[in-house]
Amino acid sequence: MQNGLAGHRARKRFGQNFLHDEHWIERIARAIDPKPGQTIVEIGPGQAALTRKMIAGAGHATAIEIDRDLAAWLKETFPDTLTLIETDALKLDWSSVHPQTALRVVGNLPYNISSPLLFHLMSIADRVIDQHFMLQKEVVDRMVAEPGSKVYGRLSVMLQYRYRMQKMFDVPPGAFTPAPKVTSSIVRMIPKKQEELQPVDWEKFSSIVTAAFNQRRKTLRNALSKLLTEEAIKDAGIDPGVRAEALPVLAFVELSHRA
């Protein structure tokens, strides 16, 4: 362990699991491939395993760290090459982070806040080049799931509306200290260009998707009965007798236009 961190223990309340295996650190860094001059923002740098690689590639990085002890060590270790923001990434006003600059966002996201944080980051999707995150494997599988899959659901639809997503590879528990009880996966998220997005009322879209998947075994006719009539569902070109898991993302957009 690096100097200054000998006494630091992973804190459960922050969902900390530190990446330590050089093989996996190198593989993740290669997948991200930071280049000189790029603005890299890392969420939860921890003990800087990935941070060092980001700085080596881009020359400089910005990091968001909630743990005060780690933040103090990071500032001391990277006085000139790391801009540190000491806060909770979920509470951060992301519009204030390098405004007017295209960002590349990376991070080993704590499992307990992964979904809300992914939604929170949508607020800056229009100026993000890409996002590379390490998450619990089952979360990544849900994110990239296709219609008809058992794990296709609200997270799949909401994120796939905004991003092109690709599962890169799995990372075993032994790559971390302490070792988590689950396998992790790396996901790449590339925001779609504005002209590629179907116009949508986000609140209506979110309500439709949430209601449709709230009780997965219900048909759309029953699941959406408080939001849409059977006729409205038919007007969207959709069979009211199917279940939500059968519908592609754009079908939910069409339904939201009838709400």
How would you briefly describe this protein structure?
This protein is α/β, with parallel strands linked by helices. Helix content is 34%, strand content 20%.
Structure description:
It is a single chain. The chain has ten helices and nine strands. The chain is of the alpha/beta class and 259 residues long. Strands 4-3-2-5-6-9-7 form a seven-stranded mixed sheet. A two-stranded antiparallel sheet has the order 1-8. It is elongated. The termini are far apart. Residues 10-15 have low confidence and may be disordered. GO terms for molecular function: 16S rRNA (adenine(1518)-N(6)/adenine(1519)-N(6))-dimethyltransferase activity; RNA binding. It comes from Candidatus Aphodousia faecigallinarum. InterPro entries: KsgA/Erm (IPR001737), rRNA_Ade_diMease-like_C (IPR023165), rRNA_Ade_methylase_Trfase_N (IPR020598), rRNA_adenine_dimethylase (IPR011530), SAM-dependent_MTases_sf (IPR029063).
Question: Can you summarize the main beta sheet?
Answer: 7 strands, mixed
Uncertain stretches: 10-15
Question: How does the helix and strand content classify structurally?
Answer: alpha/beta
Helices and strands, in order, run as EHEHEHEEHEHHEEEHHHH
Q: Give a count of the beta strands, DSSP E runs of length 2 or more.
A: 9
Distance between the termini: 55 Å
**Mean of pLDDT:** 92
Protein name: Ribosomal RNA small subunit methyltransferase A
Domain Ribosomal RNA adenine methylase transferase N-terminal: 24-193
Pfam families: RrnaAD
Main location: cytoplasm
